Amino acid sequence: MTRCILKHPSSKPTPKPAFWLLLLLTFLTFSCSQRDTDRVEESGTPIVTAEADIRDLSSHRTVTAPVVAYQRIYITARTSGQVMEINAEEGDHIRAGELLVRMDTRRQEAQLQQAEATLEEARHHYRRQRQLFESEVIPEAEYDAASRQLKSAEADARLWEVEVDLGQIEAPIHATVTDRLIETGTNVSENQRLFTIEDHNLLVVRPGIPEKDVVHLSKGQDVELSFDVFPDRAARGTIRRIFPAADTISRLFTVEVEVDQESIPGAIYPGFLARVHFTTDERTDVVTIPHEALLSENGKDFVFVLEGETVRQREIEPGVRRDGQVEIVAGLEAGEKVAAGNLEVLEDGARVDIRGQFRRHGFGR
After folding, report:
1. Residue 143 CB partners (closer than 8 Å, separation 6+)
2. Residue 53: inside a domain, yes or no?
């Protein structure tokens, strides 16, 4: 027997509550999104602003190097012999012409006396021969021979005068003795080093600088110096010269800086470690903005300048970029305010809603 089941029209399935909840959330989301869009269009694009201000974007480099005397002289023995007298030691201040060392020159002095006696005899013989030649008693050849003997005796006497003089070592300049390498009674050979003397009136520092920085330096440029022995006091220096070629190993250029000793509260000596603070690219009092405020498109650079409640797109010429700042060479004046956020959605004449001033966490502002 076949059974037929008939369904009442009222038994049609009804939507579940989850469906209605999903439909309600969709409607609310669309409604809120529409209201937010309308609000942005009314109040403008939210941005933060930055003011173009004056800064120092100079590039600085600090290099350490020891202090040295500009003039250092190694005094050597001019002849071999025994040291008889020493008149200077380390730390002594000596003057030009002052006797430093006297060597044993008794042999040379004896040779000089013999040469002087021979010279006196040659002079007497020459005078006698000249009288006889003028009286036409002797031929000219004998007179010429006497003249040659006199010149030879004079040369021999001068030679031994020099040999005696070489045994007296004198200071060539006003200086300070930094090394004494001999003792009384020792025998020295010719060209053996005896003393090192330095002129401490002119002290210099010679640091090595890479080529990308040395091109920004020049002779006569002022620099700042600091010393560990005077940690709270900066000293002045001046670039005295820049060596014309780089070191073949380090590829650094030597820059010689003269130390202004009057700007230091105490004495500075060779060997002190100096820190030389160079300004390798001086850019003081330049107009700058944060690099976040710069927009680059198609090889051109722009900023959005604030004018009331709108912004105007303006092309500018940027310069160097340092410490999160961009130098403005042309196109923007100090004090003008620019947008520093949401640049991608801005356009010329767009309304904006200022939400505050630009702040950067970390270095710079």
Report:
1. 129, 130, 132, 133
2. yes
User: Is the same domain home to 273 and 310?
Assistant: no
Give backbone dihedrals phi and psi of 204, rounded to 5 degrees, phi first. -135, 165
210-215 contacts, C-beta under 8 A, 24 or more apart: 210/251, 210/252, 210/253, 211/246, 211/251, 211/253, 213/59, 213/61, 213/278, 213/280, 214/242, 214/253, 214/255
Domain tally, the chain: 3
pLDDT in tens, 185-220: 999 999 999 999 999 999 999 999 999 999 989 999
| Residues 90, 124: Cα–Cα separation, whole Å | 51
Q: What is the Cα–Cα distance from 165 to 109, expressed in whole angstroms?
A: 10
Q: State both tokens at 288.
A: 């700058």
Domain membership of residue 131 as a residue range: 106-166
Q: Are residues 253 and 205 located together in one domain of the fold?
A: yes
Instruction: Please give the residue that has the higher pLDDT: either 32 or 308.
Output: 308
Long-range contacts, 246-249 (Cβ 8 Å, 24+): 246/211, 247/208
Determine the average pLDDT of the residues in 265-285: 89
Return the half-sphere exposure (C-beta side, CA atoms, 13 A cut-off) of residue 250.
11
Q: Assess if residue 174 is contained within a domain.
A: no
Residue 9 pLDDT exceeds 80: no
pLDDT given at position 6? 42
Contact residues for 182 (Cβ-Cβ < 8 A; gap 6+): 83, 86, 101, 188, 194
In the numeric block, the tokens 């949401």 are attached to 342
CA distance 341 to 49: 7
CA atoms within 13 A on the CB side of 222: 6
Output the domain CATH number for residue 48: 2.40.420.20
**Integer Cα distance of 119 and 126 in angstroms:** 10
**Structure token pair of residue 77:** 């023995």
